[in-house]
């Protein structure tokens, strides 16, 4: 299966304190611009993005390697992999882009490829397949299993609390929030459903961190939306079967975006790639999945 939206996050040395991360996630619609510099790791064929390992952006995020959206693609004509560049990162509550891209030199560093994630020996799962039961550590410090929600349609997605850009993990959470509101407002609709945001950064995303992070989005209403973390060894086994690609590298992550809806019998009902789906799409899938008997 083609991965339409793979990106790499490389956290190096300094990491933001939880309060800094929460400040970023709870920011207003104000547009912010951060001048920075970095190394071009990859120039994707679509000509719309750059994979850049950038320096720390004080007050926003640490050094990372990320796939960044380019506003003016003509600026890429003179840019190649291995170039050192300066640029502006512009963010608001929903999106990001980079502009004013300038080549300032060439790195002597070898542009090593990203390490491939470990692959499960089992086949990839699809609609109609039973979802294997997995254990999670939830935001309340309790061990939770997917089977605990049997009888409910379950929507789960993979996130981590240190994800900084609004159109990555924060967008997943906002879509969950909006989809949940659609379902709650439908007084005659199904009530047997559950949202589950699963962090793959179990080392950092302890229960207290996840609870604080989740509360940024749930606005004091935790109804049928739980945050939890998955152990690395469990993710290594189940991730490839869901076409969720994840690997660790030098303290950071390489992963794509994947959201899955299970029906009330614990079978895969629908899978959503990347971040382009809507809350309405998700709410519709959950409603139908909840009706399965």
Describe the structure.
This protein is α+β, with helices and mostly antiparallel strands and 293 residues long. It folds into two domains: 101 residues, Copper binding periplasmic protein CusF (OB fold (Dihydrolipoamide Acetyltransferase, E2P), Beta Barrel), CATH 2.40.50.320; 156 residues, Glutaredoxin (3-Layer(aba) Sandwich), CATH 3.40.30.10. It has five helices and 15 strands. Strands 8-7-11-10-9-14-15 form a seven-stranded mixed beta sheet, covered by helices on one side. Helix 2 crosses helix 5. 36% of the residues are buried. The N terminus is likely disordered.
Note the main attributes of this structure:
OB fold (Dihydrolipoamide Acetyltransferase, E2P); seven-stranded mixed β-sheet; Glutaredoxin; 2 domains; alpha+beta; 293 residues; disordered N terminus
Mean pLDDT: 86
Structural class: alpha+beta
- Sequence stretches where pLDDT stays below 50 over 5 or more residues: 1-20, 113-118
Largest sheet: 7 strands, mixed
Cα-to-Cα separation, first versus last residue: 30 Å
Form type: elongated
Name the beta content range: 25-35%
| Strand neighbour order, sheet with most strands | 8-7-11-10-9-14-15
The named CATH superfamily of the largest domain = Glutaredoxin
Counting DSSP H or I runs of 4 or more residues, the number of helices is 5
User: CATH top level of the largest domain?
Assistant: Alpha Beta
Could you spell the SSE succession in H and E letters?
Answer: EHEEEEEEEEHEHEHEEEEH
Radius of gyration (Å): 19 Å
Query: What fraction, in percent, of the residue positions are helical?
Result: 10-25%
Total number of distinct structural domains = 2
CATH fold annotation of the largest domain: Glutaredoxin
| Strand tally | 15
């Amino acid at each position: 299966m083609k991965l339409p939206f793979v990106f790499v996050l490389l956290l190096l040395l300094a990491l933001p304190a939880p309060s800094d991360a929460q400040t970023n996630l709870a920011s207003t619609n104000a547009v912010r611009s951060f001048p920075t510099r970095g190394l071009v790791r990859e120039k994707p064929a679509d000509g719309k993005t750059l994979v850049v390992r950038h320096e720390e952006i004080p007050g926003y995020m640490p050094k990372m390697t990320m796939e960044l959206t380019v506003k003016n693609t003509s600026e890429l004509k003179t840019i190649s992999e291995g170039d050192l560049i300066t640029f502006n990162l512009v963010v608001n509550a929903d999106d990001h882009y980079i502009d004013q891209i300038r080549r300032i030199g060439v790195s002597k560093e070898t542009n090593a490829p990203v390490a491939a994630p470990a692959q499960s020996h089992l086949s990839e799962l699809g609609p109609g397949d039973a979802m294997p039961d997995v254990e999670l550590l939830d935001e309340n410090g309790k061990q939770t299993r997917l089977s605990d929600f049997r009888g409910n349609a379950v929507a789960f997605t993979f996130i981590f609390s240190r994800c900084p850009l609004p159109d990555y993990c924060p967008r997943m959470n906002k879509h969950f929030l909006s989809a949940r509101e659609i379902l709650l407002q439908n007084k005659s609709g199904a009530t047997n459903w559950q949202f589950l945001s699963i962090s793959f950064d179990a080392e950092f995303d302890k229960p207290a961190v996840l609870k604080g992070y989740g509360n940024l989005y749930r606005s004091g209403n935790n109804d049928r939306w739980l945050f939890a973390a998955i152990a690395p060894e469990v993710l290594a086994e189940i991730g490839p079967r869901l076409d969720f690609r994840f690997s660790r590298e030098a303290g950071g992550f390489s992963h794509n975006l994947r959201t899955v809806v299970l029906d009330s019998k614990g079978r895969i009902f629908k899978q959503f790639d990347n971040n382009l789906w809507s809350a309405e799409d998700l709410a519709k899938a959950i409603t139908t999945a909840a009706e399965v008997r």
